Amino acid sequence: MFDPTTLNPTLTYSTGKGLGFGNETLLQNHELCTKETCDLSMARYSYLPSLLGNATYLAIFAILIFPQILMGMRYGIWKYMLAMISGLVLEAIGYSGRILLYYDPFDNDAFLLNFIALTIGPAFFATAIYLCLGRVVLAYGEDVSRFRPRTYTIFFCLCDFGPLIMESAGVTIVSTSHTEKQTRIGKNIEMAGLISQVIALVLFATAATDFAIRARKAKSTWDERYQSVVKTPIFKAFLTSLGIATLTIFTRSIYRIIELSGGFTGSLFTGYEPIFMVFETFMIIIACTCLTVWHPALAFGDVWHQLNFDDGTEGPPKKMDEESGDEESQIGEKSVRVSIEEIGDAESQLGEKNVRVSMEKHGMRIQPS
């Protein structure tokens, strides 16, 4: 097996004693380091990612994209659809990177593909959750809530946007760093983003719990127009699914904070794929399944748009009655034009008849045409 220290005895590797920048040099030349020639301790992960496991996860996230597209387009829930699809695509990309690492664990591009996509992806699922709370408040009745529905949506989406920016900045710095100091700065920024995400999830859970308690105590003030919706089993299942998705994303974020606290050479980051699968993969799969199977379109139906308080960009495709109304308008215009033309023809024929009668009265012969 190739010993890279013969090239430079001062090289260090990601074995827990510090970031191996000699390893970075080797990773840029695949002829020097492959899984046949170099030990896995020199790679980003000290294990080969599971091919079957990661291919299965890739398939799950890819499959979940299709019902999100179908439901989003059918009911016109565009913002929720875009948030979910963005997260699912990133998850699929991340596990594609892990599959590539199975074939070449020293491929730095594959590592970055996996690391960046799986770090950022869950933030979009949190956004999808936050988009639902305002509609839930309106369904029960705005008087029940401590805050205006729009306030919930704007506040928590901004709370999610901040962590997303920090996480993106952190992974960008890490992916382009050439020194241990740069890597540490990037890691700290990424951790700050994850911590902010955890705080936002805690605040969201607190606000949702507060509203649930107030709604339970004030059933007499519920909006009568939507009681047939909020009392259905599917709506209650939808609320439960939001709670489960929030809890699983929260658990995943706590795990990533603990993982990164040990650094990119820590044993938790580099050495235990089963733990990664439990606290990263399974948590996000549970969240995405809940947010897809109990889609808000199934819980609200067309009432989702009656509860609209945004800029009016949400909405289903044009209904048949709207199209028929347009057709009736066109038919009406056509009828008016036809009537005018018929009147003109009738007047013309009447004029010709009068002329004919007048000529006959004066003894003038009319030649047949």
TrEMBL record:
From the Swiss-Prot or TrEMBL record, state where the protein is found. Answer: Membrane
Keywords recorded for this protein, A-Z: Membrane, Transmembrane, Transmembrane helix
Q: Name the segments for region: Disordered.
A: 313-336
The Gene Ontology CC terms held by the record are: fungal-type vacuole; plasma membrane
- Pfam families to which the protein is assigned, alphabetical: RTA1
InterPro entries recorded: RTA1
Q: How would you describe this protein's topology in the membrane? A: Multi-pass membrane protein
List membrane-spanning regions: 51-70, 82-103, 115-140, 152-174, 194-213, 234-255, 275-294
The protein depicted here goes by the name RTA1 domain protein
Q: According to the entry, what is the taxonomic lineage of the organism? A: Eukaryota, Fungi, Dikarya, Ascomycota, Pezizomycotina
